[in-house]
Amino acid sequence: MDSPHSIASSSIEGLSSVTTTELLYRTTIDAIDSLIYVVDRELRITLFNKGFTKWCHKQDLEVERIIGRKLTDIFPFIGDREKYEYASVFSTGEVSVTQETSIVNSNKISTETRKIPIMDGDEISRVVTVVTDISDRKQAEHLQSVIFRISEKTSSSRDLNQLFRAIHQLLAELVEINNLYIALYDRKNEMIEFPYFIDQKDPPHRSRRMGQGLTEHVFRTGNPLLLTRETTHRFESEHNIELIGSDCAYWLGIPLKTSSEETFGALVVQSYCDEVQYTEKEKEILMFVSQQIATAIERKRTEEILRKTEAEFHKLQKIETIGTLVGSIAHDYNNILSTILGNAQLMEFSISDNDHDLKKYVKAIIQASQNGAGLVRQLLSFTRNEETPLETIDLNKFITDWDEILTQVAGENVKLEIRLDPNLYPFKGNREKISQVAMNLVINAKESMPCGGTIVIETANADFEEKQYHQNTAIKPGSYVCLRIKDTGVGIEESMLREIFKPFVSKGKKGKGTGLGLSIVKRIVEEMKGYIGVDSQISKGTVMSIYIPWYESLEVHPVEIYDHNVTRGQGELLLLVEDHNEVRNMMRNILEQHLGYGLLEATNGKEALRLLQQHQVSLVITDIKMPEMDGITLMEEIKKNFLYLKHKVIAITAFSENDDETLRETGFHKVIQKPIKISDLSRAIDIVLNGSGD
């Protein structure tokens, strides 16, 4: 029987008569998928298996007449390194194991090659070469490496943008990617956002409503989608798809899902040339890593939310501090305003009707004082999270009344245009808060025009039959009153549009405000069940649109800025308890000289009790916050010791920890907020003394 090495003289496939051992040998090596071939010292092939033939066919290599041919004739890509390895095995008799990645006919393959020497007597006559395709194993290792590095980048990336860039770079190691974008779906606002967008042809997509695009199809189905130039248009017609962007040769979208299998995003790669192809293989690769990418994005988003929450918490602490500060100064500030407003009202009553200029100046003082008081109340409402009662408002009349003040706020280098819809709907709102909205928006518009420009104030009715969208604001269908403020200023960058309504975020220059203005506007509008829409273009200006629901059944009652009707007394003796000298002097003039009452004065509750023991008074008017004994303690003492005055006490307050309802429950018949209007004070006194209109 021939020795096994004698088989090397001919191909296993070519044997016509073999022994049982030879048949077993041939069957065994033919059953192995790896390439197996034997070469002599001149690198001529003396034996090969079926795996060798299959591999050559797969790589489109010539396989006819293999036996006796040199290895370099069949594999022309074999270089000097390979020849050196064979020479080393022949000279040392040691097994050689190498791994390499090669490009064969545009195919990237990874192989492990073992070169095993065969002894023929005392010398090595041949080398058995076993080549195993380890491409799948290498790819699996590479995939695991990429997944691990995505996890690392999730921890090390500062923010989502840095994470997205890292993901792009890592995916490019697996698949040739020149064009990639990540789309995320905001279910609350029904908008698709594109936080990462790299493309050779198209500009970044702007946020948009859920439509009929290919990205939306991936969102809706939760399945990957692979299209070629040939299949795209058929898919478009079959699924009623709207193609967005430039035509591409290949489009591949991969869903990004939460751990509960809810699709929240999509990873999309595109190719504009036939040379860069996406096939089922690329789809499987991206699907394999998509869960890790989704987990990374979700984790990073959660981290950013936590950071923002922490930042918002610090901002809320700042707001709380401001609230405490505002509360501490509101009392003194409103006392100052009370003095100004009270004396201005007395001046107005004293001025002749013919002195129009002087009346105009005094009216401006009164309006400014009331506006200042409104600012304080609004800040208190903002920091204390209070809601105020709503009333019926004619927005056109309101703007007409405030025209002069808004013009002054806009400044000399800004032209103010007012365009009112004569058929405007009425709505429910708070007059002081509407003034705050108008003032803040005009100030905001003015600051965006440092070199001057035009501000247009418009009113209009707005009827929406379906949802309307302004950036991330979705407005429900319905009928609305619209207040629109347009400016010709510098505009707002798109990245800032989502931030401008947050506290302490200002689009103006440093030193141009606290950043509370627009956050106050947003809160006021939401309190009235309304919406804010913002449209802006850099260097062209900004349009702020306020939408407030209208009420068809409302009857509008005109309200004057200042009511001149007062009720005078008949010399009744009143006790005024007020610690602030200027306010007390001003109220003395109002009560004695203008309203005709007799008056006793005290600077705190203790003094008031001493006077009550000495005099029979008809009514007590007391401040709430005072030294030694405050107004609430005074009220409790009156209820205990002076029962006849139990329902004859009026509270006046600039700021109190107790709201009006709490003060009434304490026993105060009426509560008047500073700065005091003479008409309000006279009406309250008349009600308490005579029950008029109560």
Shape designation: elongated
Gyration radius over CA = 43 Å
Q: Helix count?
A: 19
* Helicity level: 40-55%
Largest sheet: 6 strands, antiparallel
The number of E-state strands comes to 25
- Overall mean pLDDT score? 81
Q: Could you tell me the strand content as a percent range?
A: 15-25%
N- to C-terminal distance: 129 Å
Structural class: alpha+beta
pLDDT below 50 for ≥5 consecutive residues: which ranges? 1-18, 507-515, 556-562
Strand arrangement across the biggest beta sheet: 8-7-6-11-10-9
Write the layout of secondary structure elements.
Blueprint: H1 20-30, E1 35-40, E2 45-48, H2 50-58, H3 71-74, H4 80-92, E3 96-104, E4 107-120, E5 123-133, H5 135-156, H6 160-171, E6 179-186, E7 191-198, E8 208-209, H7 214-221, E9 225-228, H8 229-239, E10 250-257, E11 263-271, H9 280-350, H10 356-384, E12 391-393, H11 395-401, H12 403-410, E13 414-419, E14 427-429, H13 431-447, E15 453-464, E16 468-470, E17 473-475, E18 478-487, H14 517-527, E19 531-537, E20 541-549, E21 573-577, H15 581-594, E22 598-602, H16 605-614, E23 619-623, H17 631-641, E24 649-653, H18 660-666, E25 670-673, H19 678-690
Parallel strand pairs: 13-15, 21-22, 21-23, 23-24, 24-25
Antiparallel strand pairs: 1-2, 1-5, 3-4, 4-5, 6-7, 6-11, 7-8, 9-10, 10-11, 12-14, 15-18, 16-17, 18-20, 19-20
